[in-house]
Amino acid sequence: MSPPLPAFLLLVSIAFTSASVAPLRPGFYAETCPEAEFIVKDVMRRNMIREPRSAASVMRFQFHDCFVNGCDASMLLDDTPNMLGEKLSLSNIDSLRSYEVIDEIKEELERVCPGMVSCADIIIMASRDAVVLSGGPDWEVKLGREDSLTASQEDADNIMP
Which of 30, 47, 83, 136 has the most CB atoms around its CB within 10 Å? Predict the structure, then answer.
């Protein structure tokens, strides 16, 4: 019998299975972007070499995204005239890092398979790979999340500790 997962891994694993309209499944990109998981892990590896704290930053980023209205990449949305996004919420302003890591992963994926991999799944895969590349356990994640078209600074302020 394997030892119980630390609390943060338990939260991460719960988040990996939430927030999508269609059923999530392993190998979601096997046909549309077979290199997706390799690309995410490779970019995470490079970022962790440049900045070792990026592993913890990506895991925290994923937690903040999933904790407010599900794992939908709403954290990445900028403010618009009709919407205050989550980037400037009280729990995120001047404290969340790793936007550039997710952007770099997305850019590489767009070069290989444009318009295929959601940012929500990128955040989930990057967080899993941060754990693995830090010497933690590996696990298969279910993918197929859709990116949100809205975000809510108010929800982030009210929900996040």
Answer: 47
Task: Give the catalytic positions in this structure.
Answer: 64
Q: Are 88 and 124 in contact (CB under 8 A)?
A: no
Sign of CA dihedral 117, 135, 63, 1: positive
Helix, strand, or coil (residue 12): helix
51 is in an annotated binding site: no
Q: Is 74 annotated as a binding residue?
A: yes
CB 147 within 8 A of CB 118: yes
Rounded CA separation 91/66 (Å): 14
Residue type, 27: G
Q: pLDDT band for 21, please (50, 70, 90 cuts).
A: low
Query: Is 72 annotated to bind ligand?
Result: yes
4-38 exposure pattern, b = at least 16 Cβ within 10 A, e = fewer: eeeeeeebbeebbeebbeeebeeebbeeebeebbe
Confidence (pTM):
0.85
